[in-house]
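Lab notebook, entry 139. We have the chain sequence and a SMILES string for nicotinamide-adenine-dinucleotide, and the next step in the workflow is to get a structural model of the bound complex before anyone spends time on docking refinements. Request logged below.

Task: model protein plus nicotinamide-adenine-dinucleotide, output structure tokens.
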Amino acid sequence: MKCLRHAGHARVIVGANFDGLLFLDKAGELLMSLGAMSPGHVAVITGGASGIGLAAAMRFAKAGMKVCIADIGRDRLEEAAAKLSSAAGDAAKIMTAVVDVTRIEQLQKLERAVQERFGGTDILMNNAGIQPGSQMFGP
Ligand SMILES: NC(=O)c1ccc[n+]([C@@H]2O[C@H](COP(=O)([O-])OP(=O)(O)OC[C@H]3O[C@@H](n4cnc5c(N)ncnc54)[C@H](O)[C@@H]3O)[C@@H](O)[C@H]2O)c1
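Result returned:
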């Protein structure tokens, strides 16, 4: 995850606790207290249609942020956007984009689209990915 508008907050670690997700900077300080995760700020989450990405998007939306989720699954994006709009209480604060992060031109288009719609990006959560299945007794 990256904070783009806040010098000194370059890399951010996402951790989990019993209450959900914690957003920490490199020094372990809560990002919330540093100001990037503030009402009106903009969060972009790749792989945001499910799992950890969607959980983070929900936290950002509940914090009053404008949220863009980017993912390859159009149907899941729409379902996720409905949940986020309900959490945000304002559908205008939620944006979706069908993006394959392995395609640089799609990421560049995403950056331009977020700039046009929300005016920039405060937090970029590079979360999209796949987790190869592992077997306890497998090779
Ligand atoms: N869940 C874990 O225990 C765990 C552990 C270590 C790392 N991770 C990593 O954390 C991230 C999120 O994990 P999760 O468990 O929420 O997974 P998830 O499968 O629930 O979510 C990943 C999302 O990324 C999207 N995605 C996959 N390839 C994409 C692509 N090329 N372009 C755009 N979107 C794409 C998927 O459609 C999906 O919505 C992944 O990168 C995963 O590898 C997860």
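Notes for the group: DSSP finds four helices and seven strands in the chain. Worth checking against the assay data. Confidence is low (pLDDT under 50) at residues 5-11.
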